[in-house]
Every structure is written in C-alpha cells, then in structure tokens.
UniProtKB/TrEMBL annotation:
<dbReference type="InterPro" id="IPR017853">
    <property type="entry name" value="GH"/>
</dbReference>
<protein>
    <submittedName>
        <fullName>Beta-mannosidase</fullName>
    </submittedName>
</protein>
<dbReference type="Pfam" id="PF00703">
    <property type="entry name" value="Glyco_hydro_2"/>
</dbReference>
<feature type="region of interest" description="Disordered">
    <location>
        <begin position="1"/>
        <end position="23"/>
    </location>
</feature>
<keyword id="KW-0378">Hydrolase</keyword>
<keyword id="KW-0326">Glycosidase</keyword>
<dbReference type="InterPro" id="IPR008979">
    <property type="entry name" value="Galactose-bd-like_sf"/>
</dbReference>
<dbReference type="InterPro" id="IPR051913">
    <property type="entry name" value="GH2_Domain-Containing"/>
</dbReference>
<dbReference type="InterPro" id="IPR006102">
    <property type="entry name" value="Ig-like_GH2"/>
</dbReference>
<dbReference type="GO" id="GO:0004553">
    <property type="term" value="F:hydrolase activity, hydrolyzing O-glycosyl compounds"/>
</dbReference>
<feature type="region of interest" description="Disordered">
    <location>
        <begin position="31"/>
        <end position="50"/>
    </location>
</feature>
<dbReference type="InterPro" id="IPR013783">
    <property type="entry name" value="Ig-like_fold"/>
</dbReference>
<dbReference type="InterPro" id="IPR036156">
    <property type="entry name" value="Beta-gal/glucu_dom_sf"/>
</dbReference>
<feature type="domain" description="Glycoside hydrolase family 2 immunoglobulin-like beta-sandwich">
    <location>
        <begin position="176"/>
        <end position="269"/>
    </location>
</feature>
<dbReference type="GO" id="GO:0005975">
    <property type="term" value="P:carbohydrate metabolic process"/>
</dbReference>
C-alpha cells in the first residue's frame, strides 16, 4: 500500500449524473490507515465537530508483472468508516457500507493510478465513536484498516466464506458424537471463460490430522461472476474450547481454482446462556475480562487481556477488524461483539415515530451482515445490540442510606423502550446468545453497567446493589474508576467523568491508587457472588492523558492492571471486604476451573500468619475462615497452592 496520502473535508459531492470525485476544501497530508485522522476543518489542528465527510487521495502503481499479460488487479479497501465511495482514475467504482465488510473492485490499472476514497460519517450506527467515551476524532470518516491493490489471475476466487455448524453432541454425552458441517460459498470472477472445478479441502490446523477433499464444478462466461456453494461434513470434529477448558481446535478451509487459492479458518463450538452464564459445548464456563474501546492495536489489546488472566473481551459499541477475533480464536478468549449502536441519542432515534422503523430495519440488516462476516470465529460467544440507552447517573450520587435511596429513585424513574433492540436482536442467527440491551440500573438491561464507587455509592456497596436488583448480577457489561496523568485537565479526557474524578481522587497519584482499590473490590465481589459473565474496565485508555482503562493509550500498565490480573487468577483467595487495621475480615476461595480442587490457603499481615487447607468444587466458591488485621500491618497477602497452580493476592493498607 502507498505511504503517501492527502485528505480534505468534502465541500461539494458534485452532480449526481457526473459521478466524478467530490471537491474538497484543501488537500493536506494525512496518514492512512488511521484510527483517528489528525486533520481538521479549514486548517484547524483538531477535527471539527461537523467534519461529516472526508475524501482521501493517493496514487497506486500497477502491481502486475510485465511478463503476465493475462493478469488482472483487485482493489480491496477494509475499514472505510461510514458510507464509502471509491473512484479509480476518475471512474466511480461503487459505494460500500458498513465499514467492516471489505470493498472489492476488479480494475484494469495504468502504470500509475489515482485513487480517491470518500467517506461520510454514519447517520445512525456510529456506535461508541459518536459518544464522549472516545476522542471526537474517532468519529472522523476515514479508512481505518488497509487499502491494497494486488495482482490476480485472469480467473480468480473473489470471495470465500465458510460458516461452521455443530449439529449435536457435547462433552459427556457418551456415543452421541458431534457432527460438524461447514457451509462454504465461493465467488468466482471469470476474466476468461471457465469450465473447470474448484478443489475444496478441509483439514485440522494441527499437524497429523486427516483432511477431506472434494471438487466443485464451475462454469462461467468471460466477464461473468458466479457463485458456487457446498456443505462439507466433518464427522466427530475436534471442538474449540475457551482457554482453561480445553484446546482451541480449528480447521483450515482451502479453495483452489487454477493458479488461485484462498483459505479461511473456522472452529466448531456451541454457545448457550442461562442465568448462571455461558455453556460452551455443554460445559459451564466462567467469562471474566475487559471491555475494549476503538483506537488501539487489536492484537496488542488481546495480548494484554490474556496476560491479565481474562477469558472474555467485549468489543463495546464498535466492530473492530477481524484481527481481534483471529487473535482470540488462537488464544481461547471469548468475544462479546456489539453492534455499533450506543448512547441516548441513538435510543431516541430508535423510538422516534418518524424514523424509528427505518432505523430498526437498518439495524436488522446490520446484524445479519455482522453475523455473516464474523460468525465463523469460534471465539464469538454473544452479540450485543444497544449500548447505554440512558444515563440516569450522570449527576453524582453520594453514599450511605440517602445515597441508596437516590440510586433506587433514579433507577425507578428511568425507563426505555426495549422493543426496538429486541426486534434487531431477532435478526441475528440463533447459534450464539444475543444481549439486546446493555445499560445502567433502571434500563432493564440484559447486561448491566455498574459504577458504584465512581458514579454513585461506594465500591463496597456493589453487594447491596446486587441484592436489591438480583438480575443485574447475571451479566455485567462494564464497571470501573478513572485515572489522570500528571498536568492534564480532567475535563479534556474522553470518557473520564471530571466530577467523579474530583470527588473520588482529586489528583493523579491518588487516582491511580483509588482505581486499583476500587477495581479490586468490584472484581472480587463479582467473583465471590459467582457472577457468570462480566466485562469490566477498558483494557486500554482511548486517549492520552488518562481514562477508565487499566493501561494507558500507549499500552503502559497502570497499577490497577496487576491488581486486576491477580484478582482474575482462575484459582484465587480473596478478602470479603477491603482490609482495615484492627478489624476481622473473611477469606473466600474462588475456583473458576471445571475441576474440584483441594487448596492450601495462607495469609500474612504484619507479623501474623495463618494457613488452612480447604476443598472447593468446580466453578464454585467456599469460605476459608477469617483473619484479624494487625494495627501495625502495611499489607495483607494471601497465597494459594492447588496442585500445579499457585497464586498470590496483595492488599495494601
């Protein structure tokens, strides 16, 4: 891909009948691809809030070999955010939407070629990019992922899709072995007449596995595009499992026609959900982890989550590149994938008498396309539809008895119309669960956003909140507390509530300590209460200067990262409350594995120590006893030994 791009704000799309490229205010150097294009309106350094449409321009060299006169070229654009239109050497090739579907155009290049890509901001399904959770520049229309112009044979495989289905059979069902099927669809672009057969093979990714192979006849006239499909049966397939519950078996599906070949990777698994959480392949699993915001490298975000003992990543309010899902497929992390549908403004449009039906229908189409493009990834455990439809706790709420009354009152007076989100949810295929609404108490959410200790009450009041509203503890889609870097105005940091920051911390060093204590309390409370599914704070800040993430925007860990990593150890001892010198506090042993264990649990506080051995069932918690914190102790340290597993957990005083 070229390294030299210019871009500019579109001021005139031109006449509809001319089909020429749009006119821009000024062409200026820009980086493509870019998560947040850094150019603004009419020379401003920062993107203007009304930067609705942007054009990008570059030149591309002919990629074909001089000795291959029959070669053709394929232009592929991935991640064109918003409605995208493409011109190649002045000719309009077409339009594309949504951004997560690759736009592909067969072209006949000159030695040097002019490419113009115009992107217009989505008017409805902009997701979290259109909220103040992320920098305003994240909503700037642009090419987020990549642009490639590649040589292809005269006849080539334009698109290969492979969707696995697991028909029956699960762990522990005896002779009822599972049967897998892979629905394969192949689009052929015939530059010359073709009367041939596609060789289709399916083989395990692990070495030594047996492969199946068959041939699919294909005929097409020169200049024609045609599609063939086949369902391939895989007997007794090896299943894909989340990390900690089994191996991540996958299959390579390869199609070959003449000199051209394409390969896709799929995995077999079945995901269901009940009040206790996910069942994967019929086995109960615990899903704990982080939310993920747009803006960073998806593979790096997955690696950070993995190293922090996560088993779940929620792509909140946006659709990232499939690099994230591929990394999760390999690592065994479950993915909670949202539609780009966030915020009260979007909720108002869903319920609007004039345009609500149209937005719902567009949402249903988007759900279908998302599942079609991403559904082959075995890591996808659920889809989310509507994120944060109301914000009843934007104004701060205090703590104590009056604070609890205020929380109950605000939850009571908040109401949303769930019907639009449920209508969109019905458009997803039934192979994985769907969560129609994720939001705060009072929004009747399928997944709760819980912010005690930040927006309201104290972190230790999470147990009261879940006892008052038990359904909020079934699936949790977000919680946290924010931090601020030195010499940064909290009001300038996207996603950071400046009022909450002032009340809870007030200065940068204190904010990092406060985030650590708060997240540790919230994570461990949810584990003690055996919450089956929770995605907690963002794995990374969305912007420099601070935020709700456990690492900075550059990926540097904050103190809370290590603390949460300890709290998420699969087998871990936790305190029932934050420790206080002179007070007694209980200890609970949490086991997220699918095996019963006997564990030795020890503790140290100052000069005092203790140790006991207790059994704990699979996916269960058990009380271990209690300790009294000495008045001169500076920390409480817990240690767990269970077979080959060991973990420590530290609480500073």
């Amino acid at each position: 891909m070229t390294d030299e791009w210019t871009g500019g704000r579109i001021v005139d799309w031109g006449e509809a009948d001319t089909e020429g490229p749009p006119t821009v205010a000024e062409w200026r150097p820009v980086a493509v691809p870019a998560q947040r294009p850094e150019f603004g309106r009419d020379g401003d350094e920062e993107p203007g809030p009304d930067l609705e449409a942007v054009a990008y321009r570059t030149t591309l060299a002919d990629p074909r070999s001089s000795d291959r006169a029959d070669e053709r070229a394929l232009l592929e654009i991935r991640g064109g955010y918003g409605r995208m239109a493409v011109w190649f050497n002045g000719t309009k090739l077409g339009e594309s939407d949504p951004h997560f579907v690759p736009a592909r155009y067969t072209v006949d290049p000159e030695p040097t070629n002019d490419l113009v890509v115009a992107c217009e901001r989505p008017d409805a399904f902009a997701g979290i990019r259109a909220t103040d959770e992320v920098p305003a520049s994240f909503a700037t229309p642009g090419v987020r992922w990549n642009v490639d112009l590649e040589p292809r044979p005269a006849t080539f495989l334009r698109r290969v899709k492979a969707h696995p289905r697991l028909e029956r059979g699960e762990r522990g069902e005896g002779t009822d072995d599972p049967r897998g099927e892979i629905d394969v669809e192949i689009e052929i672009d015939a530059g010359t007449a073709v009367d041939d057969a596609i060789t289709l093979s399916v083989r395990p990714e692990e070495r030594g596995g047996g492969a199946t192979m068959e041939r699919i006849p294909v005929t097409a006239e020169a200049g024609e595009r045609t599609t063939v499909s086949r369902t391939v049966e895989v007997r007794d397939p090896s299943l894909w499992w989340p990390r900690g519950y089994g191996p991540q078996h996958r299959y390579a599906v390869r199609a070959k026609l003449g000199a051209d070949a394409a390969e896709r990777t799929v995995g077999f698994r079945r995901v269901e959900r009940d009040a206790d959480g996910f069942l994967v392949n019929g086995t109960r699993v615990r899903a704990r982890g982080f939310t993920r915001l747009p803006g960073g490298d998806p593979e790096a975000d997955v690696r950070r989550a993995l190293e922090a003992n996560a088993t779940l990543v929620r792509a909140r309010g946006h659709v990232p590149s499939q690099a994230l899902h591929e990394a999760c497929d390999e690592a065994g992390l479950l993915v909670w994938q949202d539609l780009p549908a966030s915020g009260p403004e979007f909720a108002a449009r869903l319920s609007d008498a004039d345009e609500g039906d149209d937005v719902i229908e567009r949402g249903r189409r988007l759900a279908t396309v998302l599942a079609d493009e991403y559904g082959h990834h075995p890591s996808i455990a659920c889809y989310g539809v509507q994120d944060e439809p109301a914000t009843p706790f934007d104004d701060p709420v205090g703590s104590g008895f009056t604070g609890k009354l205020a929380v109950r009152y605000r939850a009571w007076r908040t109401a949303i119309d769930r019907a639009p989100a449920e209508a969109i949810a019905e458009a997803f295929p039934g192979d994985v669960p769907v969560l129609p609404v994720a939001g705060q108490p009072g929004t009747d959410p399928d997944a709760a956003h819980l912010f005690p200790g930040w927006q309201y009450l104290e972190a230790t009041d999470l147990s009261w909140l879940l006892e008052t509203y038990p359904s909020l503890g079934e699936v949790v889609g977000g919680f946290g507390a924010g931090t601020l870097a030195d010499e940064v105005d909290p009001a300038s940091v996207p996603g950071l509530d400046a009022d909450a920051y002032a009340r809870r911390a007030g200065e940068p060093a204190a904010s990092r300590e406060y985030q650590t204590r708060t997240l540790k309390t919230l994570v461990e409370t949810l584990r003690r209460r055996e919450c089956g599914i929770f995605a907690g704070p963002p794995i990374r800040d969305a912007a420099a200067g601070g935020g709700m993430g456990v690492t900075t925007a550059e990926g540097e860990p904050k103190p809370a990262y290590e603390a949460v990593s300890d709290s998420l150890e699969p087998v871990q001892a936790v305190l029932d409350d934050p420790p206080t010198p002179g007070d007694s506090v209980g200890i609970t042993l949490c086991n997220d594995t699918d095996r019963s264990l006997e564990a030795a649990v020890g503790w140290r506080a100052g000069d005092e120590t203790g140790e006991t051995t207790v059994p704990v069932g699979a996916l269960e918690t058990t009380p271990v006893g209690s300790l009294t914190v000495p008045t001169d102790a500076s920390a409480v340290e817990l240690a767990v030994e269970a077979g080959s597993r060991s973990a420590t957990n530290r609480y500073s005083l």
